[in-house]
User: Fold DoxX family membrane protein from Pseudonocardia acidicola.
Amino acid sequence: MRLRPSRAAALATFLAGAGATHVVAPRFFDRIVPDQLPGSARFWTLASGAAELGVAAAVAAPRTRRPGGLAAAALFAAVFPANVKMARDWSDRSAPERTIAYARLPLQIPLILWALRVRRDHAVSPQRG
Assistant:
């Protein structure tokens, strides 16, 4: 029998991986930071990576999982403008690249729902790890 990680553990892992990627390989993310944001793209890349790492920690810890789930949902909504910028910027690329860029747009919906479900699950059974 194979054990599956809990929904919360999977979300925390996903967020931690995304956050680490922002810090380790920021160039890709710098390019999709909306131009309307003040300051440098690198600042926003690193800030969003730090936010993902912080939210990952909140989701991982049972005591902070409920607010962490809500923070994760808000974070997934907050990065949507970067996905829109990527879709616009990649509109003249190859079909596979356009597909990747456009697929990121609706992907935010299941990510937000996943985070909200982690929040809801913890409200129902806070002793769950």
